[in-house]
Every structure is written in structure tokens, then in C-alpha cells.
Description:
The protein is of the alpha+beta class. The protein contains 15 helices and 15 strands. It is globular, with a radius of gyration of 25 Å.
Amino acid sequence: xxxxxxxxxxxxxxxxxxxxxxxxxxxxxxxxxxxxxxxxxxxxxxxxxxxxxxxxxxxxxxxxxxxxxxxxxxxxxxxxxxxxxxxxxxxxxxxxxxxxxxxxxxxxxxxxxxxxxxxxxxxxxxxxxxxxxxxxxxxxxxxxxxxxxxxxxxxxxxxxxxxxxxxxxxxxxxxxxxxxxxxxxxxxxxxxxxxxxxxxxxxxxxxxxxxxxxxxxxxxxxxxxxxxxxxxxxxxxxxxxxxxxxxxxxxxxxxxxxxxxxxxxxxxxxxxxxxxxxxxxxxxxxxxxxxxxxxxxxxxxxxxxxxxxxxxxxxxxxxxxxxxxxxxxxxxxxxxxxxxxxxxxxxxxxxxxxxxxxxxxxxxxxxxxxxxxxxxxxxxxxxxxxxxxxxxxxxxxxxxxxxxxxxxxxxxxxxxxxxxxxxxxxxxxxxxxx
Length: 434
């Protein structure tokens, strides 16, 4: 029998802390490794989580035979729970850095339930809490575990016919999704949750095809829980009025290969589930629409067979991404006319810009752009050389080596700068010490 209290003895264990990677210190304007790790530390009550799981699954806590960390993402930690019946489910717990946490959890759960009720391949939610006022002592979502293959694991091995099949399936799923009409823009919530969170009723989804009264009781449109989108979309009443002239729809907020779980059992790829609906929102069609409009089928460049292994890998990945865009575009045009039509909003020239720039201002902007492009090339080189990703993230196993490489690059850079007349010996001494 797995004793949950024993898992609470070591609060420094991987269950509560971020172990997938580390963060290199970039400069005074970026947070260092310790701060990044602290923002991703979340201690919670494991016995309380076991009790919550037992209630949700109508079983005893003694039936939980395994509990382990499954994955860590940018905003959440995921745990795999296994019962003695071999049934498995996942518990997802957000990091402290996720904001606005309460609205994000409440909206995601309602969005998943709503889309699942429309026949879309979305995970089933068994239990959740959008506040930490519970026996788990944290916000959480208990949901279905799908045993398929993450598309990102086989991405580099995809053949063109498999890409065509996947894009065709995806376009059909998105067609169903984007055909759902909404009375307004915002995020989807359970009506009862939004009432508790904000005191507001929200806008009921009163125009759904079936069981209208049931829909109105359960789901509603409330405030968009994305901080960036909220500040943009609600900047002015004029913009809001303009949205009323366009249909509202929903789409996955950040669909990548890592968000698709597929099955390979039948010999052909089948989409099993679309994961991670955090920050999903109902928006005007023109804000959701986005497909490459270049309809020329991509091909490998001339002389590809004479390229180095590194260049072959780079060109192969580039071709694969272009094929995805190309076939996604074709499938969207065939199966998802709503989305394809939405691209037309970008096709017109629109009104003449009222702001006029002088030749001098244009030249200054061009000079600034060139300087920025040079800086970005340098940053890309540094990123490839040291081996870090966004926010200077590196895999935990690579941290010490990457840190040493970064420190050596820094030392040589400051040494070169110290030879410049504009950098004093005192400045060099300070930067070298840091």
C-alpha cells in the first residue's frame, strides 16, 4: 500500500520542485536560476490529493498503488496516478507563476467540458478546484490519461502521407470547433464558477443546437483570462463595437506537435486528443484565423544531397514544417471553410494609414532595424553555441556544462571590450567579478 504521508517527508523532492531544467543567468534584467526555480516550486498536500482522487473515482485511497511526476511544462506540473485496477489518470497542478490562476483553471475546465460535449477529442475532467481553499492546498485538475504517443516524439520521422493524414484530421476537428457559434467574445466558464469568482452572471450560451436549457445552466461567456489579450481587446469601446460585425469562435490557443496525442496502433496516425487548453478564448474569427497563404508545394533545395549532415537535418526539418503548413492550408480550404474565409480579412489593403513618415525617419528606422537584426543574429549564435532555449532554459543534465560555456564566452567578451577605449579598467574589473 502506498502511504501518501510518507511522500510529504521531503519537501525538496521532485514532486514539489522543478527538475526538468535550469536557467542560465543572462543579465541584470533577467531572473536568475534560483528565482526561476522558486517560481516553479509548489508544495501541496498529497494525502489530500489522494482523498480527492478517491472521491472522484469512487474508490479507496488504498487503491492508489503509484504516484509519480509525469511531466513539467511552462506553467504546470503533471502527475500520473495509477490504481490497483491499472486505471490511470493525471493530476495537473499549476506553478505559483501562473496568473490569473483562479480564472485560468476555472476557464480551462469549462472549455474542455464544453468542447468535449460537442464530440471533440478532449480529455475528460474528473475533479478540479480553481482555488487553493481545499484539502489539496492548491489549485488542481484531475483528468483523463490518454496512452497514445505524443506527436513531438515522432515528429522528425513523419512521412508526407502521414503529414497529409494528420492535417486532414486536424482541419476536420477545427471545422467542427469553429462552427460552434457564440453570443460574445471572452472565455468559457461554468455559470456557477463565474458567479462565485466575480459575482457576475456572464453571458449564457443560449444559442447552442441541443439541450438549450441545460447549456444555459452550465456554461457562459465571461472575462478573458489572458492578461495580454485582455489589455488589448478591451482597450476601447470602438474596438468592441467593431467585433460585433464578425462571428465569434473558439480555437486551440497554442496548438503544436507537443499538444497532440496520436495513436499508431492501426498503422496510420489517428488524433486521440488535443491537450492543454489553458488560455483558450472565444474571439472574433479574424483574430483566430492564421494559415500560411503560400500555396507552392515546398521542396528540398538544389544540392541538398551534397550538404553536410547538420545542413541536411536543418533543411529536412524546414521542409517538414513547410509541408505541414502547405497541407494544413489545403485541408483547411477543403474541410474548414469558416477558417479559410477568415483569412480574407487580411487580404484587403484597408484604409490609408493616417501617419506619414519622412525620408529621414524611414532611414533611421531602417538603421535601427539593421542593428536589431545584427543583435538577433548574435543572440541566435550564442543560443546555439551555449545550447539554451527561451529564458535561457537548459536541460538539467546540461546545466553545468552550459554554465561553464556561458561564463567563458562572457569572459572573452569582456576581455575584448576592455581593450576598447570606451571601457575603463574599473568597469572591466566589476563585470569580470560578476
